[in-house]
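Honest question from a wet-lab person: if I give you the sequences of every part of a complex, can you actually get the arrangement of the whole thing, not just the pieces? Trying it with mine:
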Amino acid sequence: MSAEIREREALFSSKNIKLLKNPLSLSNPITVQVLGICSALAVTAKLEPAIVMAISVTLVTAVSNVVISVLRNGIPPRIRIIVQLVVVATLVIVVDQILKAFVYDVSKQLSVFVGLIITNCIIMGRLEAFAMANKPWPSFLDGIGNGLGYGLILIIIAFFRELLGSGSIYGFNLIPESFYELGYKNNGLMILPPMALIVVGVIIWVQRYYTRDLIEKN
Amino acid sequence: MYSNGYIFRYAAIMVIIAAALLSTAAMLLKPFQERNVAIDKMGGILASAHIPDVTASNSIKLFNEFVTEEIVLDQNGDVVESYTEANKENAKAFSLDMKAELYKKSQGKPFELPLYVINKNGQSLYVIPVRGIGLWGPIWGNIALSSDLNTIVGVTFDHKGETPGLGAEISTAAFEDQFIGKTIFDNQGQFTSIMVVKGGIGKLAESERIHGVDAISGGTITSNGVNDMLKDVLETYLPYLQKHR
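Yes, you can. This is the full assembly:
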């Protein structure tokens, strides 16, 4: 009895907190592992779709991590990738249907990218690397952490792109009319995908400046 | 080691559970989704006539307010039904599915066409819904003609999954606004449709530019799709248009 209690870990032990916090900076899926870039370029012209995408990916990563972790001892290794794909695809379709039912406008803006969550390397990566070998609770935290790490970068990019490209934040115009009269113009380039890549680059630069551990030695 | 039998059973059960889950979700959410599609359809019709400030929340109200008549046409361009009551959503014209009707036409069967009449600042605008094929899937939209049934007042296009940044640009204002003021008949009253010209309308003769718009660079197949869609659908409406011009 006492041995059993000693074995049980606290829900938020320092190890588990690390699972949640590391993907936000030290092992961020976008800026450090450079995964999930294509959707980061595609849905970040405005803040609203970026936030919906962040929530959707976090949800799918967390739930699929838990499902795979629960099943991990029964999954035949020979078809494990197929099983993972079925779980992810099912969840993504459900998310897509829910978006279509309740936030139709956003779902139209995200268009094919909701479906493409299935191919987001972050999700399959976490399933293979983490959920197949860990218990449900840590897997859940890992999924939430990675989803948030992805979402955080998406939201930062979208913030700058929408502010500089459309002069608004979350659809509200921030730049006063008088600025435009003085000759200020929204930067149309910010709306285009290449600028997202440059913003990602700047974020990586800033992050490495403050987190020297990330800089390669040679 | 897992036996082959185990693997097959595992896969079969997994697929059945996933299928059950998905069909339940689809059935429960369908009414909400259909509602959204109907509201979106109204929004598109209103937007093509440049009714200002159309949002998802006020589409139904504005649709009932601005649309004065919903007409069902037969293949000869004769009016079969004209609906003018308050609740415009219940009209037969609104429930007609362009995809099904155009398919009937291609099969040589009798078909019916919807036509919306919008009253904007005392002017009657005629909105024709169009539907065609893009690169990856269906494209559709609405064309608002002024009361001469010749000059385009505005268009909206939408698509299922055209390439973002290329074909998907058909639903942007930059592409749609090109259509304003263009005409679908020439001076002799000959039907010309609107040409979507690769390389720009600069390539056309001066007199033809009023019937053309610039195609999208890198979106050739979608642009061609828009071109064919306009030609095919407007041709289908031709009997009505010619009778009433």
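Two things worth pointing out. The first strand of chain A starts at residue 168 and ends at 169. The CA atoms of residues 125 and 189 of chain A lie 32 Å apart.
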